Automatic annotation (TrEMBL):
Entry's family note: Belongs to the DNA repair enzymes AP/ExoA family.
Site annotation Interaction with DNA substrate: residues: 248
Feature type site, description Transition state stabilizer: 149
Gene: xth
EC number: 3.1.11.2
UniProt-recorded name of the protein: Exodeoxyribonuclease III
Active site positions, chain numbering: 106, 147, 248
């Protein structure tokens, strides 16, 4: 089963790019972030026309996540994180698909730091970590994926010295990442590519993509039961070069059959 994550940066504005990628690469399950679309404007019919059913949690102008599949039904298990009852931002969606529990994540950016946005990011990260622990406790096969807005190590950022004060590379954020991972999760990209420079995001400014001046902020975390099934992982770099594309590229993993 091939599972992909893609911060589409506006599902309606980037719809031709999304549909082209779906048709060319045919991932089995896709997690989307930054839909920037209210629920009633999500392009479910266009997505269905290329072979995918969809579950989505939208928000006007900002945020928004979705799960697409072409390999079976989607059974929603959670919409939003527990413990943040006052949260009106669409950042977490979870469903069972083809025998795997999948959570798609759009973790807050947190800039400027310090400030209320950074405090919100850290609170959200804490609640994600608490929920992730409960998912591990179920013993079910689980994938957590999406835009985590964190570069875990210096290997994950071009010129890390330029990011020391940024909320995506702040010590507190990287420490929160490792608290999460150390519960028993495996970073799929780093498991298969431990020493490679791999980026998933490049700013539109200063020809960043052509210079490969990027960040790795889109991640896959696997529970222990799935680690032995990890058969491949990579980034569809070509999509970032397409016209009117997102500033992220799709990231994917392949899980072998049991």
């Amino acid at each position: 089963m091939k599972i992909a994550t893609y911060n589409v940066n506006g599902v309606n504005g980037r719809l031709p790019v999304l549909l082209r990628w779906l048709q060319e690469e045919r991932p089995d399950v896709v997690c989307l972030q930054e839909l920037k679309s209210p629920d009633d404007r999500f392009p479910s019919e266009a997505i269905r026309a290329v072979g995918y059913e969809a579950l989505w949690h939208g928000q006007s102008r900002w945020n928004g996540i979705a799960i697409l599949t072409r390999v079976g039904e989607i059974h929603e298990t959670r919409r939003g994180l527990p413990g943040i009852s006052d949260d009106n931002q669409s950042r977490y969606l979870e469903a069972a698909v083809n025998g795997v529990l999948i959570g798609t994540i759009y973790l807050p950016n947190g800039n400027p730091r310090p400030g209320p946005k950074f405090e919100y990011k850290m609170r959200w990260f804490e609640k994600l970590t608490e929920h992730a622990r409960s998912l591990l406790d179920t013993g079910l096969p689980v994938v957590l994926t999406g835009d985590f807005n964190v570069m875990p190590t210096k290997l994950d950022v071009y010129k890390p010295e330029r990011w020391v004060d940024d909320a995506l590379f702040a010590p507190e954020v990287r420490e929160a990442w490792f608290r999460l991972v150390d519960q028993g999760w495996t970073d799929a990209i780093r498991m298969l590519h431990p020493d490679e420079t791999i980026y998933t995001f490049w700013k539109y400014l200063r020809n960043a993509f052509a210079r490969n001046a990027g960040l790795r902020i889109d991640h896959f975390l696997l529970d222990p039961s799935l680690v032995g099934r990890l058969a491949g992982a990579g980034v569809d770099l070509q999509v970032r070069a397409w016209e009117k594309t997102s500033d992220h590229a799709p990231v994917w993993i392949e899980l072998s059959d049991i």
